[in-house]
Every structure is written in C-alpha cells, then in structure tokens.
Amino acid sequence: MSWNPAGPNPCVPLPLQAICEKYVLWPFGNICNFGCPYCFGQFVAGVPKPRDWTEAQAIAGFQDFYEDYGAAFVLMAGAEPTLEIPLVAAVLQQHYGSISTNLSCDLDVFCTAIPPDRVYLHPTFHPLGWDMEIEPFMARVRTLKARGYEVPLVALVGYPPFLPRLHEYVAAIEAEDCYANIAPARFPAVYEGRNLPQDYTEEELAILMPYVGRYSQFDEHAVVKPLRVVACAAGVATMCIMPNGHVQRCSQVAVGMEEANFMQSGHIKFLDEPLPCDQPQCQCGNLYCYHITDEVAPDEGQKR
Question: How many angstroms separate the Cα of 231 from the Cα of each of 70, 72, 144, 295?
C-alpha cells in the first residue's frame, strides 16, 4: 500500500504535517500575463476567464473549512495566483499553502502582503516571458529566498524550442539549491503542427527524458502511463475546488464526494475510505502518493 490513512498527510510539507490534516487543490487563478503557447489551461495573456463566485464567497468558504478542520495546506494554482494577492493573503491568514507562480508580480507588494512562514513558492520558469534568459528569473528566486521564503522547486515545461538550452536552465535552477521539476508539454500543446507529447522527436526525447524520467507517471515517450490501481484516497485526505467552486475528489474525478459547492459552504464532508478510480490516466503528479496499489501485480501497478 502506498498511502497510510492513519499517518500524516503525505502531500503536506513535513514541517506542517502536525498542523494541516487536509490538502486542498485550488486552481482558482483566472488570468495570466504571459499567454504561453503550451499553457495547460489555454489562457490568453490578459484575458480573464469568467467566474461563478466572488472573492468574499471564497474567503467565507475557507473560514467554514477552518472551523471544521483547522488549517489546510492549499495548493494555489490556475493561471497566475499572484495577480490576486489580496485574495491569496486573506486565505493564508488562517491556512498554509504553496503558490504556483511565474514570478511576474511586484515582489515588494507580495512580500508585504504574504508572510514567508505561511507559504511555499513553486515558481515556473517560462522562457518566452523572459527573452529565453533564466538569470533575471533566478535573481527573483534569490531575492525571495533571502527574504525567508521557501522555494523547494522551480518548474519548467519541456517545450521543444527550450530543449537546446535545457541543460543550462536546469544547472541554473540547481545552483540555487532548488529542485528542477521538468515536465513534458502536453495537451493542448502543439508545436509546428505536432501534438505533444505524442509527437516529440527521438532527438527531443533524448534531451528531455533524462530529466523527466524521475517521475513515475511518464513513460519513456513522455506520455502519462496507464493508471492501474485498486483505489485512490483522493477525497479522504484531499479535495479539489474546481474553477466553478464545485468540490471533487481530484481535478479529474467528480464522483465520490457529496455534491457541494465550496463557494456556497466550506463545510465539506470528506470520504471515509478510498474509492476505486475509473480514470485511464492520472494527470496529477501531486496525488500519486494516495494511490492504493497493494492488490496490484508489480508489473501492472504504478508505484511512486
């Protein structure tokens, strides 16, 4: 079995595992200022996606949640969460979390609003937003670390034009004592008429996969492996708040948890035990530790 329901939540950073029982994925960001062509969410620079909820409703939902479960560890993602610093700061007054960010925000404004003991930063380097040069981006990482923020990793999408400089980028990330989190480009990413990751060339895979191969969810062709597990504990120790406010076990699986909208009430009922998963693939590397694999043959199951 790859998850112990009696133990601490494995997706919560070790220093906070005694504080945060629940892990919440919240891809709320509905606007970005980069507009990268490989964007998983297909965001256009400067164009916000419509919402079905208000900032006040989100803050009230997290207050309800705190009353029931105490502080959660909230993964804040979507497009660019730091374009909504007042909302982020309000939630982090009671909760802890990590922020996926392109680091394009005003660092002084960010540091004034959000104390470093409430948040881990997961920056993503998007070369097209930095004239293909990583040093200005890493200078911001150094500034944040000097101000006390934890930056355990820096992510980078393996878009084909970036691959000739991938070694340089990884070296710059690791020089700042950050883990280089390299992921293949995936749907809806297209490059020169090629659908990724299926259409990476052998030459591109030879550059990319030595870095991506550290992740069990990808095969040697940068494609997510088939999911073969007995059950998944997503929904027991974690949940995902979808962009419209609805609560799901994870971003892919809607069935299992009772029908609820976090923006109407944050008093959420979690599952009592893991449930089977009917998804052919798991697109979320964060939740692999919740997969229950004890009854699956070693050559068929996926293990973290």
Answer: 27, 23, 39, 10
Instruction: Give me the domain span that covers residue 134.
Output: 20-225+233-276
Residue 200, in any domain of the structure: yes
For 207, residues 6+ apart whose C-beta sits below 8 A from its C-beta are 163, 164, 166, 167
pLDDT band at 295 (very low <50, low <70, confident <90, very high): low
Q: Phi and psi for 121 in degrees, rounded to 5?
A: -105, 130
Is 7 among the domain residues?
no
- What's 181's DSSP letter? E
The encoded tokens of residue 95 equal 């909760």
Report yes or no on 5 lying in a domain.
no
| Burial per residue of 91-128, b for 16 or more beta-carbon CB atoms within 10 angstroms, e otherwise | bbebbbbbbbbbbbbeeeebbeebeeebbbbbbbbbbe
CB 247 within 8 A of CB 240: yes
Q: Tell whether omega for the bond before 136 is within 30 degrees of 0, i.e. cis.
A: no
Could you tell me the CATH number of the domain that includes residue 98? 3.20.20.70
Phi, psi (deg, nearest 5) at residue 156: -155, 130
What is each CA distance from 54 to 59, 72, 114, in whole angstroms? Answer: 9, 21, 21
Q: Which residues contact 91 (CB under 8 A, 6 or more apart)?
A: 58, 59, 62, 74, 76, 97
Closest CA to 42 of 247, 185, 200: 185
Structural domains of the chain, count: 1
- Residue-wise pLDDT for 24-70, tens only, equals 999 999 999 999 999 988 888 889 999 999 999 999 999 999 999 99
Assigned domain for 100 exists:
yes
